[in-house]
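Protein Entry — a single chain follows
Fields — amino acid sequence, structure tokens
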Amino acid sequence: MSLTSGSVHRPIATTMIFLIVIVMGAMGFRYLPVDLLPPIETAELNIEVRYPNVGPEEIELLITEPLENSLSIVANLESMTSRSSEGEGRVSLRFAHGTDLAEASNDVREVLDRVRNSFPVDADPPRINKFNPDNLPVVMIGVQSERELTQLTTILERDVRKRFEQIPGIGSIDVWGGLSRRIQVDVLRDRLLATGLTMADITAAIRTESSTTPGGNVQRGVTELYIRSLGEYQDLDEIRNTVIRTVDGVPLRVGDVATVRDTIANVDRYIQVNDIPMVRLALRKQTGANTVAVAQAAREIVAQLNLERDDMNFILLSDQSSYIQDSIDNVRNSAVWGGILSVIVMLAFFRNGSITLIIGVSIPISIIATFALLYLGGLSLNQMSFGGLALGVGLIIDNSIVVIENIVRLRQNGQSLIAASLTGTRQVAGAVVASTITTLVIFLPVVFMQTITG
């Protein structure tokens, strides 16, 4: 029994199948992530090495050139560019289209492990970065307060950040424009020479005394106690009283050869709005998470924090979901109005309400079924997918008109309703399939394009 014959002779089963499709499509639409564009992965990797307080020429000699020489052997590498600036060296790798970035990252990581020992001791370990649109902040929140910036930064990092981390789909949260506390030990050169100590001695003493180390377990009957030594500093005096070395029974302390100050870290970003300092929170989502849902949850938390805290003012600076929602709404509205106008045109030409109703009902059912396929395929609702749905509406209308016209012609020739439906559909089935395939074939070359578009 063919598909057409089964649909005509078993109307109840056909109706149940359509209801199942509609329910699955509605559920898929509810849980589909919404984004501006589909996931884009470029075949590029960036390697970054920081070496603070070193000029560009030294960076090129000590960092960039060893990286270039070592990374040139990585497989599928098409081009390599580098940049040397003060305190930082960058190397960008572009791979051939279709290269597995996970495998390429492993190859690059193995090379970096080998070349790491040739870098200066004070240089930071190399970092591998991939370009990912999901790494861009989806929401930017500004925080103003009468508190000191160091205290405000501490509250945001320890308390407020945890509120936003509870959002489903949230990735990382960065604090920009704040001031971090730093304990600075200024060594007095003359005293250091007089005592015969070195900078390494002071560094080793502070590192040893400020660490918390495990002491094992102690069994007392059925109770097991965990022992650890708490060595972290609590105030500046503990740092000053740290013993570096004992000479002739006299301890030499950090405070004897250096001054200890409570300062702030280097400020690389300072933000002011209306002459009032501001700290920004940058919220990034996880890959594949719903941008609109994440932003909506962030807005709700901002409203709650403004009600709960009188000492801070939370301001929504940017919201990527607003632009995404507006763009998708425009495409969706265009598709909806296109379908409505098509139905009006069909009604004007057919002058038959039942025929127009049949074609009009087939449009939303087909679109709803597509939502289920998108969800099962792990895709998202974006401008590209909505554009494809708009194109599908046109194909549905064209094919429906061809089939309906042939059935109406057979009915006018005296055939029964069932016979006209079966014969009319069978006669034009080949033509409908052929016309659909010719439309799809137009997009086939895109698959073979060696670019992001392909």
